[in-house]
Amino acid sequence: MKKIIVGFIIILLLSILICRVKNKSGATNKPEVEWIYTYEGLLEEGGKSVLAASDGGYLIAGFKYIKFEDVNILKVDEKGKKVWEQIEGDFGRDYCEEVLETSDGGYIIAGYSDFFESKNWDAMFIKVNELGDPIWLKNDDSPTSSRSYSIKETNDNSFIAVGYIRGGRIPMWGEEDADDKDVNIYLLGLGSSGDSIWTKVFGSDKNEFGYSVDIDSDGGYIIVGKTDAGSEGKVDVYVIKTDSYGEEYWSKNFGGSEDDYGEEVIRTTSGDFIIVGSTESFGSGKKDVYLLKINKWGRLLWSKTYGNEGNDIGNSIKETSDGGYIIAGTTYPVDKKNSDVYLIRTDSLGDTLWTMTVDNEGNEQGNSIDITEEGGYIVGGSFSKLLYAKSMTLLVKLGPDPQTGYLNIE
Ligand SMILES: [Ca+2]
Ligand SMILES: [Ca+2]
Ligand SMILES: [Ca+2]
Ligand SMILES: [Ca+2]
Question: Confidence band (pLDDT; 50, 70, 90) for 92?
Answer without folding.
Answer: confident
